[in-house]
Design a protein that fits this description.
alpha/beta, TIM Barrel, seven-stranded mixed sheet, three-stranded mixed sheet, 12% strand, iron-sulfur, PA0069 family radical SAM protein, rSAM_sf, iron
Length: 359
């Protein structure tokens, strides 16, 4: 990709049209050329933090193949910039593009801890694991400034309520004290996403995430402190990281992970166009091969939405990937102790914020 046209530190290289808007705008080549000759900046590349005030913070998940019942997202949009991210489409509901807007306009929910506490105190609420980052990463760079995730973890601990976390950022270690306290009562499970062992791949695929070394160190530190860690090898992208399944699984096991999970990439909604543009610029030598192999995993399309097959794919390439995952589990995790289901028995006694001694 031409370094002059590349948007550094971002995954997506353009804003795609919002499907909910009748009108759209585009950057014409002649305008871009004029700006380049005049030395003018077309648009700034800084991240904006925008406060939003939702009425609720916990969402019920109705998709049968997601693996969680409830999720909460304290930030919308994600500065990590993973070009393949399925969550990009959700930014359109807020009036933005799934492309660069998703990475540069981060919506911040400062009331999240209060909204969470209000829910957990309800008499009608029955404890079930709530997963932070079901959509966007709760430990993206914004957390350094706002510490909303930390405040929410304090609420979960106060009410002895189970919580799951999915992240690809070593920033989670800032909350090690709270995670250790939650782990004492089996109230926490953590999934660390590690997509590649190659820093070169990581930098262009997930530009603002923690390094691979940092992520493996995070798995080890969490594990050494009694916090159960699952490593998500996700998504697996044919001819980009599909050859790394076994070494990734081995590295995860060696650093204390008790299990691995995976998905095969699916480029639903606006992400197909974003990914196609990205790979044609970043990996032009293999763009057609990768795109055709992804299509072969999803019935000839990049946009996969069928429950039951969308996460695991179909066809020979998908079968090979899924078989490699099965082999990795047998080879590196057969002696691992499986994490027990998170504890839902304590919360009822702590709905007032303290143990009821008169029950």
């Amino acid at each position: 990709m031409n370094s002059k046209s590349a948007i550094k530190g971002r995954g997506a290289q353009l804003n795609v049209r919002n499907r909910f808007f009748e009108l759209s705008h585009e950057m014409r080549d002649d305008f871009l050329e004029f700006c380049n000759k005049e030395g003018e900046q077309v648009e700034h590349n800084k991240t904006e933090y925008l406060n939003v005030f939702p009425k609720t913070i916990v969402n019920k998940i109705n998709s049968p193949d997601v693996g969680m019942q409830y999720s909460m997202n304290v930030y919308q949009g994600c500065e990590h910039g993973c070009v393949y991210c399925y969550a990009r489409n959700s930014h359109e509901f807020w009036g933005y593009s799934a492309g660069l807007d998703f990475e540069r306009k981060i919506l911040v929910k400062k009331d999240a801890p209060k909204l969470l506490e209000n829910l957990l105190k309800k008499k009608s609420w029955k404890a079930q694991t709530i997963v932070m980052s079901g959509n966007t990463d709760c430990y993206q760079p914004a957390e350094n400034q706002f510490e909303i995730t930390r405040a929410c973890l304090k609420v979960f601990l106060k009410y002895k309520h189970p919580v799951g976390i999915i992240t690809k950022n070593a920033l989670i270690l800032k909350d090690l004290d709270l995670l250790k306290s939650l782990a004492k009562d089996n109230l926490i499970g953590v999934s660390i996403s590690i997509t590649s062992l190659s820093e070169e791949t990581r930098r262009i695929l997930e530009p603002r995430t923690a390094s691979i070394k940092k992520r493996l160190e995070t798995v080890k530190i969490l594990s050494d402190n009694g916090i159960p860690v699952n490593v998500m090898i996700a998504p697996i992208i044919p001819s980009i990281n599909s050859h790394e399944i076994l070494p990734l699984a081995k590295a995860a096991a060696n650093n204390g992970a008790i299990s691995i999970g995976h998905t095969i990439v699916r480029l639903n909604g606006a992400i197909g166009a974003l990914f196609t543009d990205w790979i044609e610029k970043k990996m032009p030598d293999r763009a057609n091969k990768v795109l055709h192999q992804i299509e072969s995993c999803h019935g000839g399309t990049l946009n996969e939405s069928r429950y039951g097959t969308r996460m695991r794919g179909e066809g020979k390439i998908a079968e090979q990937i899924n078989n490699l995952i099965k082999l990795a589990k047998r080879k590196y995790f057969k002696d691992k102790v499986v994490q027990k289901k998170l504890n839902t028995t304590l919360h009822e006694s702590f709905k007032t914020g303290q143990l009821n001694l008169f029950q």
